[in-house]
Amino acid sequence: MGELIRFSKPQPSYLFSILLGAQILTAVLLPFHVALASEDDNSLALDSASSAGGTIGAASSGPAYGDFNGDGKDDLGLGVPGEAVGTGDSITFAGAVNVLYGSSTGLQASGTGGPNDQFWTQDSPGVLDTAEEFDRFGWTLAVGDFNGDGRDDLAVGSPFESTGMLDHIGAVNVLYGSATGLQSGNDQFWTQDSSGILNEGEQEDFFGFSLAVGNFNGDGFDDLGVGIPGEDLNEGVSLIMDGGAVAILFGSANGLTATGDQIWNQNSPSVFDDAEEFDSFGRSVVAADFNNDGRDDLVIGVPFESVGAVSVAGAANVLYGSSTGLQSSGTGGPNDQFWNQNSAGVLDSAEANDNFGSSLATGDFNNDGRDDLGVGVPFENIGSIQDAGAANVLYGSSTGLQSGNDQFWNQDSSSVQDTAEAFDNFANALAGGDFNNDGRDDLAIGVQAEDLGGIEAVGAVNVLYGSSTGLQASGTGGPDDQFWNQDSTGVLDTAEANDQFGFALGAADFNGDDRDDLAVGIPSEAIGTIFGAGAANVLYGSATGLQTSNDQFWNQDSSGVLGSADDSDNFGWALGS
Predict the structure, then answer these.
(1) Which of 251, 380, 485, 492 has its CA 20 to 30 A from that of 297?
(2) Handedness of CA 133, 428, 336, 320 (dihedral sign)
(3) Which residues contact residue 307 at a Cβ distance below 8 angstroms, ignoring those fewer than 6 apart?
């Protein structure tokens, strides 16, 4: 790839693209307004609102473990949103998803110990709709058991899907699991124009830009939250552009249904704060049970939210589950919450363009039976170090998330490996999982723009391990902090400029040993001379945490993997596990 281009902090501007020939330059790819530059451009256009970025799987759901064939070993979906399909690859940027199945030895693509690799597009037999240019099928992924059959299903976001005369209203396909893995016999295709769905599809809504799975009403069927960050909202005679919204589809014995569906925004009754232009409510979403009442709750990132007079500081709303689904009034569950770095007890303070809430992840970091929340603040300045990045952690309680033992982590935190540097974007992606099987979840933190030894933006991942008091980096009550990159001993491949190792993260147990493993997306990885083909490393868990003795390196030219590595495919952009 060419030289990395550094940008100033993001602003909520519109339609900004970063192009390098046919290769997307995913330099500091974080989720600012994403749109199509032009249907004459053979590239993804990312309005970074100055700092480039791309919303990924880590901005979608938390540790959603995906066992598509019910064999007890988790499987991995990898989004390839730049994939061209059709005769002669004539349908550019239609997008695709590869699926690698777990086995007793880990992920495999050959059918040894598990099903063969699968390759899905909107032109695959039985998949609803049709592959079209610039759909970006596979932009986001989320995993859950929507029909309660004991096999997980895969939701695939295509936020740039166009219908009729409306560009980029967005869509979500759902592939259901079976004894042989994902299949399309009862595939679903959802848009805001689907029968029974509240609201209607509008140009540049980007329905499906983020996805999260949780059982919000406690009925035993997983439900799906769909981010619509480009949704315009009406307020009297005024139009609030890109205020953003989230739609909820509920699970049933027949899968997802529009019956009883919900749509939420910051103008919904009892939801805190007010919808404002370019807030992009729903740009990131994650689900977990923060009060341990048996019903999952939904966190909605609002990374462009202004806090008082502090522009684009960022925030997150929390809607709590009840027997009737998500609610914001305290009926059947806690009241809606609104968190930012000026909230009482939250460490640090809201600053312009921090983008608190750009990434989200959950896990029970202190093993108290209540899930906790990691919030990425990837454009946080650490002292005078611009855009070094940070993460806040809010812990669960019987009344929901609280800030009494909030934590604030960055690469200058005590015992955290490496050093905060300008434009690192620590916490651009987050994933929670129990990598050493001690009963306490751990937090993997992407640092996609980390420089190593003078090589720019090779990327890295920090891992903080859980303990009885929560996340720690010193080895007290859990393993020491770890720092991984492609030059770490035992990690396959080599750190190269602009790889962005850590752009996407996914945690699951791929070999069935009861220890979670970590998949690391590297969508800008060059495969030989094929720029931006993309790849993923997999680090396997052990009694002492993540280790590299059986590290794997996957791309579309790996043996048994369907498809082929091509320029700008961006394999590993999103991870569904």
Answers:
(1) 380
(2) positive
(3) 313, 314, 315, 340, 341, 342, 350
**What is the strand order of the sheet 257-264 is part of?**
210-214, 223-228, 245-250, 257-264
Closest residue by Cα to residue 431 from 48, 56, 50: 56
**Mind spelling out the 3-state secondary structure of 205-236?**
CCECCEEEEECCCCCCCCEEEEEECCCCEEEC
Any idea which residue has 């048996």 for tokens? 294
Give dist(CA 500, CA 448) in Å, integer.
5
Q: What is the 3-state secondary structure (H, E, C) of 180-200?
A: CCCEEEEEEEECCCCCCCCCC
CA distances 14 to 51, 190, 242, 278, 517, Å, are 12, 26, 10, 9, 38
CA-to-CA separations, 157 to 142, 311, 317, in angstroms, rounded: 8, 29, 22
* Spatial separation of the C-alpha atoms in residues 535 and 545, rounded to whole Å: 23
Is residue 363 within a helix (H) or strand (E), and if so which, with residue range? Answer: strand 359-363
In this structure, of 62-71, 364-373, 464-473, the range with the lowest mean pLDDT score is: 62-71
Q: Which two tokens stand for residue 136?
A: 């970006």
Give the closest residue to 92 by CA, choosing from 57, 45, 49: 45
According to DSSP, the residues that pair with 288 across neighbouring strands are 297
- Residue range 36-68, pLDDT digits in tens: 222 333 333 323 222 222 233 334 333 345 899
User: In whole angstroms, how far apart are CA 21 and each of 320, 459, 477, 573?
Assistant: 45, 22, 50, 19
The CA distance from 301 to 210, in Å, is 10
Residue type, 195: S
Other beta carbons within 10 Å of 278:
22
Predicted confidence (pLDDT) per residue in 450-469, tens digit: 999 999 999 999 999 999 99
Beta-carbon contacts of residue 88 (< 8 Å; ≥ 6 apart): none
> Residue 362 in contact with residue 63, Cβ under 8 Å?
yes
Amino acid at the residue 567 = D
**pLDDT in the model for residue 27:** 30
The Cα–Cα gap between 383 and 82 comes to 37
- The DSSP-derived string for 477-543 is SSPBPEEE-TTSTT-SS---TT--BTSEEEEE-SSSSSS-EEEEEETT--BTTBTT-BEEEEEE--T
CB 240 within 8 A of CB 231: no
